[in-house]
Design a protein that fits this description.
Low-confidence stretches: 1-6
Protein name: RiboL-PSP-HEPN domain-containing protein
Strand content: under 5%
Number of strands: 4
Organism: Anaerobaca lacustris
Oligomer: single chain
Largest sheet: 2 strands, antiparallel
Structural class: mainly alpha
Mean pLDDT: 85
Order of helices and strands: HHEEEHHEHHHHHHHHHH
Strand order of the largest sheet: 1-4
Number of domains: 2
Number of helices: 14
Distance between the termini: 60 Å
């Protein structure tokens, strides 16, 4: 039997027996489609699966579109019946831009990044007033500390992305200043095509950035938006502390436990509010 990992053209496929054709067709199908149970959101109140990645797709239609005229209707019918017994509606398999596009859509839907930030900080302040048993208070305060840093990261990313994706001048400055794009070689014949897809490429790149790398973020804000984040030293120390809380289970690199008190949380709140406030003064437009 033919090794189906070997690439076959459609014309070649017709020369093989039905067993090989069946295997090749199934292999092709599962390279492009999957049972929606794997990652498609399901909301019973909304009527079932939410086909945010595309679909639903009918197996028979997809097989006929790809293989009709190259293999017999009998083989297509057999494979389609097998697939329909496994699942009636199919979703596309994951592609590199799926989650990036979804994330950028969420950012685009945010009306006011600053209001979202202040709301998150207000929630933390309210939680600080809750009576917590002494034996769990330490972990509770660690979570609040991390949440404050997360609120800052979210603000920094959403503010920057909304500005760049909605302002052609900011988009141009970002592309010109980002080393990721400066090193890309584009043939002259592809320049216009590259220009047509630049927003997609920028969006994909922004979705992958680590927004608590403040050294890099400070440079991006300055080069693209002409906004100065000022002295980020104290904030960097807080982010290092957050790293230990999240990735080292509350211990520093020497294995010492890190304590977080309500006073620590109030201090970090003041720090992030000052940073965000300075950015808001420099970027007053409602992006």
């Amino acid at each position: 039997m033919c090794d189906i990992t070997i690439s076959l053209s459609l014309d070649q496929l017709g020369k093989y027996d039905q067993g090989v054709q069946t295997e090749v067709m199934r292999k092709w199908f599962f390279e492009h489609f999957e049972d929606p149970v794997h990652r498609t959101p399901y909301e019973s109140r909304e009527g079932g699966y939410q086909w945010i990645w595309g679909g639903p797709y009918d197996a028979r239609e997809q097989l006929e579109e790809q293989f009709a005229g190259y293999v017999s209707e009998e083989v297509i019918d057999r494979v389609a019946n097998e697939l329909e017994r496994e699942c009636l509606e199919w979703a596309p398999v994951e592609s590199p831009g799926d989650y990036e596009d979804y994330y950028l859509d969420d950012v685009a839907a945010i009306e006011n990044c600053y209001e979202q930030f202040t709301s998150a900080i207000s929630d933390v302040r309210r939680l600080l007033s809750v009576d917590i048993p002494k034996e769990t208070a330490g972990k509770f305060y660690c979570l609040l500390f991390v949440n404050v840093i997360t609120a800052l990261e979210t603000y920094l990313s959403d503010k920057f992305i909304k500005r760049v994706m909605n302002d052609r001048e900011a988009l141009r400055k970002f592309v010109e200043s980002a080393s990721h794009f400066g090193s890309e070689k584009i043939p002259l014949s592809q320049v216009l095509k590259a220009a047509e897809t630049i927003e997609v490429k920028v969006g994909s790149h922004l979705a992958d950035i680590v927004w608590h790398n403040l050294g890099r973020i400070k440079s991006m804000y300055k080069a693209t938006l002409n906004a100065d984040l000022g002295n980020i030293g104290p904030m960097m120390k807080a982010i290092t502390k957050r790293h230990h809380l999240v990735h080292r289970n509350g211990q520093d690199k020497d294995g010492n436990a890190i304590d977080v008190t309500p006073e620590d949380i109030h201090s970090i709140i003041c720090l992030v509010e000052s940073l965000v406030g300075d950015i808001e003064k420099q970027l007053k437009e409602p992006f």
